[in-house]
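U., I forgot to send this yesterday:
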Amino acid sequence: MTVDAVIFDIGNVLVKWDPRLLYSQLIQDPDELEWFLDEVVPLSWHTDHDRGRPFAESIAERQRLWPAYHDLIALFYERWEDTIGPAIDGTVKILETLDDKGIAVFALTNYSAETFPAFRKRFPFSKRFHDIVVSGEEGMVKPDPRLYDLAIKRFGVNPVTTIFIDDRIDNIEAAKAKGLQGVHFTGANELKADLLRFGLPL
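Result:
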């Protein structure tokens, strides 16, 4: 099998993303920090932003629910850039090498449509992608099978000769169900080894 396209997830594959990066600067007590991240701004709540819900609407709702944390909740959007860490250099190098050697590279990401433009400005490697499907623009998130169907059609790829990379197993399993070659991301070195086994020129 000859691989001719690679689809990358973005968060925690190409860049570090974790609300802890922001809130560890603001909440000093470790137990309170863990509780805040689990209960006040959990991933399940943020997933609605990735699905297209406006930050202003969901933050106001959350502030009514947790009034003692009104200001900290507001910072989830106001200081969104602080939830994003540095690029994962090893993965970026893989992306750039594949692009330089003629392999079509794409992105399929769970990301808010409101905050994605700032991401593209901040990280020049995003210009390497031939196309990007952003969940917040489509109103659905991985692992929704419809999002993979949309990406395959829009990118014009053959699933059998296309690798999909993601840090979450459930997203990988959904991709495989659509015929894509799934690679679970655990680190840049491991990713390079996995892609070399597919015969990619790295």
